[in-house]
Amino acid sequence: MSIFSDKLETLSRTIEANSHAGQTQLVDALRDGLTGPAIAVGSGGSAVSASYFACCRRTLKASQTAVQTPMEFVLNDDALTATAIWLFSASGDNADIVAALDSALVRQASVIHIVTSKRDGLLGVVASKHARVVIHLIPVMEAKDGFLATHTLVGVITALLVASDQTLPTTLGTLVAESFAAAAEQALSRASREEIRARLDAFGVPDTLILLEDPRLAPVGITIETSLWEVGLCAVQRTDFRNFAHGRHVWLKDKLERSLLFVTAGRETLPVWSDIKEALPDQTNSLLLAFDNCGRFDNAVGILRAMAFISALGDVCGVDPGKPGVAPFSRPIYEARSLLSVSSDRSPAVRHKQRAIDFRDDPLQRHSDTALFFKKAMTRFENDRFAGIVLDYDGTLVTFEGRFQPPSAEICSELVRLLDAGIAIGIATGRGGSVGEDLRPSIPEKYHDRILIGYYNGAYLRPLAIDISLAPPNRDPRIENAARWMASHGDMLGEKGVRNSGQQISIDLKTIKDVAEFKRAFNQSDMAEGLRLAQSAHTLDVCLVETCKTSVVSALFGEATQNERNVICIGDSGDLLGNDHVLLGTRYGISVDQVCDRGDVCWALLGSQMTGPDALLILLRSIVPEGLGQARFAIPDPLRGQL
């Protein structure tokens, strides 16, 4: 008897414990999460648990479930605000799964579930500090779980199987647990294992196992693939039947005698396997595990049958899967904390910027170190001193939904605080006089002359004190020509939503029938000379080519601005086609929403989860006066933990 065989003999106790553990928290979590997407994360044997969890959700008609390894999960930068994360780990002591937890927290997962047998593992200790993390503890009736953590795996499978049934409107009650216990007894019996061993003895020890599977039985296939590699019994190639048919079978041409086909098939895919088997040479060695509907019950039983196969193959190979013996280099590889370091470097700001870099995929940016760029940018902000601040309006000072309301009282209070300290303030907006009309009642009149506004994307500079409806800008002939061109192309625009100030034409995006086609037609027309298009979240502006929001920066201090006076610029549309792209490309540009792929400028310091006026308020509060007309940028608390 091997250690692994001993583990199989006692699995019934862990199955029993998890069949009656009363996992109401797990049941509620499964039921509550059915309507939203989920990501299941696990490696090694826990990859089986993650895959089985996805099987449970599939059969429960849940939303999409992705199965990822910790490294795959850490290196993905998508926001997870609407996604539930499930982390599977036997003991929770591996740094990789802790890195996955760190990534889930940074990416703002809606809820994080940890399924483990050990509450006081490294994962559990870290998780206990965060309210969004729920720990599901799995009873394991074996003090030492063994090399393959067999009891934990079967405990998780049993708990998920029983809990899944309890999420149903009408449960099957004790039938599920009783049927699984009976199936386990049969699958793990000595007679079953001896029967498999007799078949394997006839084949001989294989060099390669080709695992052909029904994709719905992925948890069974992962059990075999993972275990055989971890124990070192033989090489494994895992694929489905039809992918095997597209060239994977060539291996057998010269290596047939030293290969074994291990087949898992359901009712619908048995004929697919039969076609393949009929074409293969008669001397092909194969073992078939046949199932019915490949649901969560079949997969749970299949995992046990896979364990019986692993035990039998270990006996044939003379290797104990419970204690295979490992090389001296194994522990340093397993215990390496490099992935945790990678995750720590990928702060919200870095992940947000990396998504923009990946989207653009500029060959000249391929070798940039985004985390290093971020640290350099933060060092610059923390060490330099500032004399002014220029702000975009829509999406920055106010939300898009509330853009016809004044900024919040809290933001106005911060602006007044900075003005009192002698900090110059400018506003660069794509809009016209409505910005002044909304802002003047919210700022004490004595400050109106000290706030410079660049209307129409910087084309018309006037202090807040001036009502530009009474002192409008001159009408530029190029803008008037563009207006006539647009009138002649009415088929591309709706009847409303076009505003001509004489210095700029603003078009509501929703009134343009095809934005890409409109841009193409305009840029190819004779009218485009001397004009450019600038896009925000809600408008497309036709601007004079020489106008730019950076004119507000230059006007704050004249020629001294770029050389002697540092100005913080904050906007929301920093992406390549955004109307803040140039403004946020200055040395101290900060975005409160979209960023570009330039690594050295245009950072959303608070990432993608905190945007618009909420982010702006934190940034404004971080500007600390140091004598009249000068301030420093104090790293805000939500950001300091990223450095």
Structural summary, described in words:
It contains 27 helices and 22 strands. Helix 19 links the parallel strand 11 (388-392) and strand 12 (424-428). Helix 7 (150-166) runs antiparallel to helix 14 (296-317). The longest helix is centred in the middle third of the chain and has 22 residues, at 296-317. It is elongated, with a radius of gyration of 32 Å.
**Main beta-sheet annotation:** 6 strands, mixed
Give the beta-strand count: 22
Helix fraction bin:
40-55%
How widely separated are the two ends? 54 Å
Read across the widest sheet, the strand sequence of neighbours is 14-13-12-11-19-20
Q: Assign an overall shape.
A: elongated
Q: Kindly report the oligomeric state of this protein.
A: single chain
| Class inferred from helices and paired strands | alpha/beta
Q: What share of residues are in beta strands?
A: 15-25%
What's the gist of this structure?
The chain is of the alpha/beta class and 643 residues long. The chain is 42% helix and 16% strand. Helix 1 packs parallel to helix 7 (150-166) and helix 3 runs antiparallel to helix 10 (218-231).
Topology of this structure?
Blueprint: H1 3-19, H2 24-32, E1 38-41, H3 46-59, E2 65-68, H4 70-74, E3 84-88, H5 95-106, E4 111-116, H6 122-127, E5 133-137, H7 150-166, H8 174-187, H9 190-203, E6 208-213, H10 218-231, E7 235-240, H11 241-245, H12 252-255, E8 259-265, H13 270-279, E9 286-290, H14 296-317, H15 330-335, H16 338-345, H17 348-360, H18 370-383, E10 385-386, E11 388-392, H19 409-420, E12 424-428, H20 434-439, E13 451-454, H21 455-458, E14 460-463, H22 477-487, E15 498-500, E16 504-508, H23 515-523, E17 531-535, E18 539-544, H24 550-557, H25 560-563, E19 567-573, E20 589-594, H26 612-621, E21 623-625, E22 631-633, H27 637-640
Parallel strand pairs: 1-2, 1-3, 3-4, 4-5, 6-7, 6-8, 8-9, 11-12, 11-19, 12-13, 19-20
Antiparallel strand pairs: 10-22, 13-14, 15-16, 16-18, 17-18, 21-22
